């Protein structure tokens, strides 16, 4: 009996020692594996195979990386190294994927000044041409938000593969299509392939870069100036080409479609669906990549609001409608200038071939303005004032076009530099500002898609403002000037509102006790309705 009692006492001491050891271990801080940022990723089993192409990504992987990101310890040098790896692998693929597609807008404008193109598709007057331009936005608007939900489910690489393949095949079909009905049908198909293009790219990049790093990267991916310049050069050279099978304008679409289809395959195999699944990063680097963003805005690819909840959060947010107004207003000019630029230059007295060559210079100068504005916006961590400056530059350009296009060829051509530079620099600034404003991530994804989708509903009517070719489109230029001015005004009001919200939230936090602050809770991702959230202005 005494032996049994001694064994029980011995067992109790052993259990006590183990319990003390556990408490000591847990209170001593993260383990080596946790500090390394690999503990939870190491616990993952074998990589699960997706059942089919549209199967969702494994949320357990994203959760493991997020948990490792909470405890990983790293130096600024390591963070810089990870960011450079992302710049060298992800960014080039996104840039190539993004800059490959806007050339169609420029190519359509370049082809329109060629008589053979108009005869092939039965474009006999300006009304038929503007209708063909407008119908592009129908499928674009209807599928923009569903496309963003699909991207979140299957991953960026598979979504962009589908989008690029669909768009490339539609572009290739232009080569052999004939008749006005075929033109309208192909324009609708192009719009469907374009759905999710801009919003999806910004949503994807927000998983890789901090808020103050985003505008510069978006400008490299989103500007239409670079492909516009290339499209002008290609048109200038290819319109002279003619074979027994293909005419010059057909080569424009052929040379555009083939690289797009090749790029779609590269995107599928080499672009990571999200940072959590990036094979070019080690497990530790994936944790660092996530940790650097968690300390900035903590994006999440899974969980949180579903698509419908995100939609309701967006449509009841006044900021979404203000961003939509800014985007829709300047997009009136963007939706028309890329199509009408060769026509406007030809109207100054140049031949069709020379007009295509003269489109290159405004796009090149515009590219420099896009890059500078985005770089300076990131450097100063400001969006509002930069947007207002770009709006003002474009506004001045349109005023010159509306008043001096018939009096001075030099002034009219110079004004195109202002219009192109001002308009296209607004894309990355406005969309990165919107992405910086909406939270959580699920709301951000729907919000950026909402802005693009609703704004492009306005773009359906945009080409119709250029209804006066006999008057050098002066009324259209005046309407565009008014729209850009409205964009500048709403951007000013939005900046003032966000600045006031930041000040009010800061004052509210200062008045709160520690217990009240603690009652806010530790959430996985802070909402933009939370007083702790700081808006970029």
Automatic annotation (TrEMBL):
According to the record, the segments passing through the membrane are 159-177, 183-206, 218-239, 251-271, 320-341, 353-375, 387-405, 411-434, 446-466, 478-494
Per the record, where are the segments of Basic and acidic residues compositional bias?
A: 1-24
Q: Where in the cell is it found?
A: Membrane
Q: Which GO terms describe its molecular function?
A: transmembrane transporter activity
Q: Which PROSITE patterns match?
A: MFS
* Region listing for Disordered, in residue ranges: 1-50
Official protein name in the record: MFS general substrate transporter
Q: Upper lineage ranks?
A: Eukaryota, Fungi, Dikarya, Basidiomycota, Agaricomycotina
């Amino acid at each position: 009996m005494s032996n049994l009692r001694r064994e029980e006492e011995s067992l109790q001491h052993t259990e006590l020692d183990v319990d003390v050891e556990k408490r000591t271990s847990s209170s001593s801080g993260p383990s080596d594996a946790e500090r390394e940022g690999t503990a939870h990723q190491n616990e993952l089993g074998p990589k699960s195979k997706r059942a089919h192409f549209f199967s969702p990504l494994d949320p357990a992987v994203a959760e493991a990386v997020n948990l490792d990101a909470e405890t990983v310890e790293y130096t600024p040098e390591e963070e810089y190294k990870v960011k450079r790896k992302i710049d060298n692998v992800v960014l080039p693929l996104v840039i190539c994927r993004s800059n490959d597609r806007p050339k169609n807008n420029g190519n359509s404008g370049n082809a329109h000044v060629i008589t053979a193109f108009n005869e092939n598709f039965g474009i006999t007057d300006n009304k038929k041409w503007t209708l063909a331009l407008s119908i592009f936005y129908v499928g674009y608007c209807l599928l923009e938000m569903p496309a963003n939900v699909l991207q979140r489910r299957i991953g960026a690489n598979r979504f962009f593969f589908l989008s690029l393949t669909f768009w490339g095949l539609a572009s290739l079909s232009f080569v052999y299509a004939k008749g006005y009905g075929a033109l309208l049908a192909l324009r609708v198909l192009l719009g469907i392939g374009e759905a999710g293009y801009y919003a999806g790219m910004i949503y994807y990049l927000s998983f890789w870069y901090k808020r103050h790093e985003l505008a510069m990267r978006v400008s490299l991916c989103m500007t239409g100036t670079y492909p516009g310049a290339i499209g002008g050069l290609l048109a200038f050279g290819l319109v002279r080409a003619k074979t027994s099978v293909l005419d010059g304008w057909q080569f424009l679409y052929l040379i555009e479609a083939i690289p797009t289809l090749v790029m779609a395959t590269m995107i599928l195999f080499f672009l990571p669906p999200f940072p959590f699944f990036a094979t070019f990063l080690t497990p530790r680097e994936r944790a660092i990549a996530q940790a650097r963003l968690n300390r900035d805005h903590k994006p999440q690819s899974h969980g949180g609001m579903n698509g419908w909840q995100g939609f309701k959060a967006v449509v009841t947010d006044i900021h979404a409608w203000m961003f939509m107004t800014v985007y829709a207003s300047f997009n009136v000019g963007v939706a028309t200038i890329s199509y009408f630029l060769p026509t406007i230059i030809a109207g100054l007295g140049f031949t069709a071939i020379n007009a295509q060559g003269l489109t290159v210079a405004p796009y090149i100068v515009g590219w420099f303005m896009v890059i500078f504005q985005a770089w300076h916006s990131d450097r100063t961590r400001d969006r509002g004032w930069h947007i207002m400056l770009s709006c003002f530059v474009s506004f001045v350009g349109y005023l010159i076009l509306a008043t001096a296009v018939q009096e001075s060829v030099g002034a009219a051509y110079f004004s195109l530099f202002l219009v192109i530079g001002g308009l296209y620099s607004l894309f990355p600034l406005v969309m990165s500002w919107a992405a910086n404003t909406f939270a959580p991530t699920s709301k951000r994804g729907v919000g950026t898609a909402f802005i693009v989708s609703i704004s492009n509903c306005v773009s359906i009517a945009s080409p119709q403002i250029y209804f006066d070719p006999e008057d050098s489109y002066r009324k259209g230029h005046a309407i565009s000037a008014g729209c850009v001015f409205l964009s500048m005004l709403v951007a000013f009001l939005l900046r003032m509102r966000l600045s006031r919200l930041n000040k009010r939230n800061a004052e509210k936090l200062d008045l709160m006790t520690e217990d009240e602050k603690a009652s806010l809770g530790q959430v996985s991702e802070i909402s933009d309705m939370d007083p702790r959230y700081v808006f970029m202005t």
